[in-house]
């Protein structure tokens, strides 16, 4: 992890050790593995010895866990479980697992569930097929909403004026040449998503990774989350009708989850 050292901001009620632990958890959720202790300590403004103690404590409490590839840490199931139990999305995280699992199994693609957090998407759930090119995005990851079909699927249900207000002052980043890297480009993409009824990405976030996404609604009809599937371009184009088949299965999964949450689309 690179970047300037962070200066601690103290308040009369702040508890510095907790602030350091939270700062570390946020960094790990955003992809910092804390493999190089000295570099991570400098980047976060935490003493190296203190960093080692925080890592040990968080691992003991299952808030973080060793990465399966043996390099550093990732967010642990203990933290994900607490977040799910205490959040407004508890019903969502209770009901979604079998649907997300079936989606991945039926399509042979990585399937994800995510929700908006301001202008970012939080990945709540991931199911991967047994393929070499499965998704490496971890549950708990924060990714700019404009770069993902999860985020765009939700934002496409919003009034464009509300989208503009949300992204006012946000610095857009070009993850690939295809990323909507400005507010006008994002609004154009959302308009296409509305017209097609599904969000589509051809390498918007990662080169060579395509995706389709669609919104999940609660009892009030509000889009509170989204489902997406990701894979290689070949997964979506061979045979020619494959994209439409994937879109149909994905829409059905979102419909099933929405109905479990109490939303039934009006029939025409």
From TrEMBL:
Domain of life according to the entry: Bacteria
GO biological process: one example: negative regulation of DNA-templated transcription
InterPro entries associated with the record: GAF-like_dom_sf (IPR029016), HTH_MetabolicPath_Reg (IPR050707), Tscrpt_reg_IclR_C (IPR014757), Tscrpt_reg_IclR_N (IPR005471), WH-like_DNA-bd_sf (IPR036388), WH_DNA-bd_sf (IPR036390)
Domain HTH iclR-type residue range list: 15-77
IclR-ED domain span: 78-263
Example of a GO MF term: DNA-binding transcription factor activity
Keywords for the protein's UniProt record, in alphabetical order: DNA-binding, Transcription, Transcription regulation
Protein name: IclR family transcriptional regulator
């Amino acid at each position: 992890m690179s970047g300037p050292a962070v200066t601690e901001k103290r308040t009369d009620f702040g508890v510095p050790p907790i602030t350091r632990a939270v700062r570390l958890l946020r960094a790990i959720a955003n992809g910092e593995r804390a493999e190089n202790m000295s570099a991570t300590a400098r980047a976060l403004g935490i003493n190296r010895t203190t960093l080692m103690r925080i890592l040990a404590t968080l691992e003991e409490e299952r808030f973080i866990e060793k990465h399966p590839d043996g390099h550093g840490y990732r967010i642990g199931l203990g933290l994900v479980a607490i977040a799910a139990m205490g959040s407004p999305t508890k019903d969502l995280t209770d009901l979604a697992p079998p649907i997300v699992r079936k989606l991945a199994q039926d399509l042979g693609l990585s399937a994800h569930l995510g929700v908006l957090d301001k202008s970012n998407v939080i990945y709540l759930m991931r199911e991967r097929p047994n393929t070499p090119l499965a998704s490496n995005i971890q549950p708990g990851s924060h990714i700019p909403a404009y770069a993902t079909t999860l985020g765009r699927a939700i934002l496409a249900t919003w009034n464009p004026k509300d989208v503009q207000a949300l992204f006012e002052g946000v610095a857009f980043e070009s993850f690939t040449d295809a990323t909507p890297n400005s507010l006008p480009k994002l609004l154009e993409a959302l308009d296409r998503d509305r017209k097609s009824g599904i969000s589509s990405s051809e390498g918007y976030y990662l080169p060579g990774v395509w995706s389709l996404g669609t919104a999940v609604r609660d009892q009030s009809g509000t889009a509170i989350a989204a489902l997406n599937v990701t894979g290689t371009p070949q997964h979506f184009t061979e045979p020619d009708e494959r994209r439409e088949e994937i879109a149909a299965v994905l829409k059905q999964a979102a419909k099933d989850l929405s109905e479990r949450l109490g939303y039934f689309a009006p029939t025409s």
